[in-house]
Amino acid sequence: MAAHAGALTDQAAAEAQARAILPRLTLDDKIGQVSMAHVFRFTEGGRSAPIRADADATFRTLRPGTLLNGGGDAPQPNTPRGWADFLARLDALGRANNPANLPAVFGTDAVHGVNNVPAATLYPHNLGLGAAFDPALTREVAVATAADMRAMNMGWTFAPVADVGRDPRWGRYYETFGESPWLVADQVAAAVDGLQSGGVAATLKHFTGYGLPSLGLDRANAEISARALHEVFLPPFRAGIRAGALSVMANSGSVNGVPVHASRTLLTDLLRGELGFQGLLVSDWNDIERLITTYRTHTDLVRAAAASVNAGIDVYMVPNSVEAYQNALREAVQTGLVSEARLDEATLRVLTFKARLGLLDAPLAGSGVLNDHRDLARRAAAATLTLLENPADTLPIRRGRVLVTGPAMDSAAIQLGGWSVNWQGVGKGNVPDVPKVATLAPALKATAPAGVTVSALPETKRPQLLTAAKGADVIVVAVGEAPGAEWQANNPALSLPDGQITLLRDLLATGTPVVAVLMAGRPLILPTDIQSRLSGLVMAYLPGTQGGAALADALYGRAGFPGRLPFTWPDSLTQVGLWSDRPAEGAGETPLPLYPLGYGLDYTTSVARDLTVTPAPDGVTAQATLTNTGEKAGTVTVLLRASLPASGALQATSRLVGVLRAVLKPGESRAVQITVPRDRLSSWVGDAYGPGTWQLLPGQYTLSAGDGKATLSLP
C-alpha cells in the first residue's frame, strides 16, 4: 500500500506486521523508537536549512522512531515542494540508517489547515468552527487538511484539540470547539473521521483537564472532581476514541496536584481501561523534563522517565535533549525501574502506528502540490460569523459612505491568530513569510454594491481618521487580539488593548454609527459605554485565509450570520466560570451573562415548534419543526437541552445534548430529527469522595428546543 494513500491499514494486520519486527530490535533500538527528535537535529546549523551531509550518522546514533517540527519551524524553502522533498529525504535516511530499515514517522501541528506552510489554505480556528455547529463542515475541513498534508509527505497531525474550553482567559481557548462537552464531542469525532479518512493520523489532545487551568493560566493545575471529569472533560475524548483516533497527547498541566505525564490513573487506568484507547500515547513538548524543572515532583531524569513511561507515555516528544532522555530510559530499564515488557509495549505501539499509516510498506511519495481550498475556507469562515448587536438595523450596509479602520482591517496576523506560519502567529519568530489572505478592508472595497463607496484609513492617522469619520454614513472598525499561542496568549483581563478601546471611544464620539468587527479567540469584555452605543457588533473569531471576503458578504447582506456562540459570554470578569451547564447553587442565584451559549442574530427570524421525543434503542429521538419566519434565507440553529431527574448531586438546570439545524428559505418550514445517545442523558452518580458510576437515572426527562418542550420517562 502506498504511504498515506487514503485508507488506513487494519489494526489487526498492522499489529501483526509490528509484532514480526519487534524481536529484531535491540534495547537501544527500542529506546530510539519511543523517542521523538526535532527535524532540526538533521539540518545545517540546527535551523531552517538544508539537511546536513552527515545526517545519516545522527540517524544511526539516535535511531528515532518519530520526528517533529516546532510550531513554525520549517525547511528551506518553506514551500509545498520544499516540504515534500525535505520529508522524503528524511524518510529515506531513516530507512537506510534506522534499525530494521524503519522510517521515522513525522508529526506536526496542523491545527487549522497545514498552518506552518505559507502557501497552504488556513481555516477558522476551532472556536469558530464550534460556532458553526456543523460537524459535517468540520469534517470537510479535516479532509482538505489531510489532502494537503499527504501532498507534503506529512502523515500525523497533533489535532484535533479535544479539550473543553471552560476559562476564556486561557491562551489556548480558541483551539477548543467551545464549552459544551457533547457539542465539542461531535466536532472532535468529525475531525478525527475527516483526517483519518484521508490517511492522516489524528491526535486527541490534551488528555485531560487542560481546559480548566487555575486562574486561566496555561499549563496550570486543574482541580476537577470525578463527576466533572466524567461529565465535562471526558466526552470529547471518548467520542474521538470511538471515531478511531490513532493517537492521544497527554496534558502538559496537572490535575488535582498530580502532573498528568506522571499519572498512571489518568493515562492508563482511565484512558486505556475505562475509555478503551488502544493507540499511541505521546507526550507534549519536553514534558518529562518538566517533572524535574517545573513541577519538582521528581529528582532526576531517570526517575522522571520511569514515572512517565510507567504511567503510560509511549513516545517522548524530546526535541532538545534526545541523548539525555535515551540514557535515562536505558538506565531505568537496566535497573528495573521500567520493565522490558513495558518498553516492548510502547515500541509495539509505535510500530503498529507506522504500519497503520502504511509507512512500513513504501517510501513517501507526496506530490508537493496543494489543492486550491479557498472556496472551502470562505464557506467555513462564513458559517462561523456571529452577529451580536444590530439595534437600529445598520446592517446590512446597502448604501452610503463607509469608512473602514482598525488594526484588524488589513492584518493577516490578527485574522489568522496563533499557529499560523509561526507558533505565535504571522510576523513572529523565525519565519518571516506572510501568506496571501483576503482581509476585510480590501474585500469591502472590491465588492461594494452599487451606491456604496468605501474608504479606509489606519487608526494611526487619528486626525484624518476622525475627520473622515464625521463625513461617513457608517464606520466599520475591525479590532482584535494580537496573535499568540499557549501561555503567551493568556488574556487575564479578557480585554482589548487600551489603544483599541480609545479608538472605539474616539469613533463613537463622532456621532457616526459604528459597527465593530471583533477578531478574537475568546469573548472579550467591552466597557459599558462602548458596548451600549455600538450600532453593530460582529464576532468573527479567527476566521482564516478567507475571513475578510466572508465578512464583506455578510456585512453587505449577500449572506447572513449563521454562527451562534459556542460559549457563554460573561458581562464581567466575575462571571468567568458561568457556563451554560453550571448548576444552581448557594442561594439559588443564577447570574445572567451578557450573551448565552447559542446566542446570535441574523437578517431573518426563526422559530422551533412541535417538539416531540420518543425512546429509541440507543437513546432518544427528538424532532421539531424549524421555520424561517423572516424575509431572508438563513440558517436556523436551535439548541436541544435536557433536564434530568434528581441524582443526589448538583446538576445543571438543563444540559445541552444536541443541535437542530436547517438552511431555510423565507417562510419555509422543515421537520428536523436527531437521536440523542443514552450517555448524553446519563449522570455520574456518587458522593463527594469515593467511587462513582454512569447511570441512566429512572424518572422524567424534559427536552426543550426553542419554543418546544416535551417530556418522557426513562429508562
Automatic annotation (TrEMBL):
What SUPFAM superfamilies does this protein's entry cite? (Trans)glycosidases, Beta-D-glucan exohydrolase, C-terminal domain
Q: So what EC number does this one have?
A: 3.2.1.21
By its UniProt entry, which InterPro entries does this protein fall under?
Cellulose_Degrad_GH3, Fn3-like, GH, Glyco_hydro_3_C, Glyco_hydro_3_C_sf, Glyco_hydro_3_N, Glyco_hydro_3_N_sf, Ig-like_fold
- Which reaction(s) does its UniProt entry say it catalyses? Hydrolysis of terminal, non-reducing beta-D-glucosyl residues with release of beta-D-glucose
Matching Pfam families: Fn3-like (PF14310), Glyco_hydro_3 (PF00933), Glyco_hydro_3_C (PF01915)
Sorted alphabetically, the Gene Ontology BP terms of this entry are: glucan catabolic process
Per UniProt, the keywords (alphabetical) are:
Glycosidase, Hydrolase, Signal
The signal peptide annotation in the UniProt record is none
Ranges where the Fibronectin type III-like domain occurs: 636-709
GO terms for molecular function, please? beta-glucosidase activity
Q: Where are the transmembrane segments?
A: none
Q: Does the keyword Signal apply?
A: yes
Its family remark reads: Belongs to the glycosyl hydrolase 3 family.
Give the protein name, as stated in the record: beta-glucosidase
Q: What is the lineage of its organism?
A: Bacteria, Thermotogati, Deinococcota, Deinococci, Deinococcales
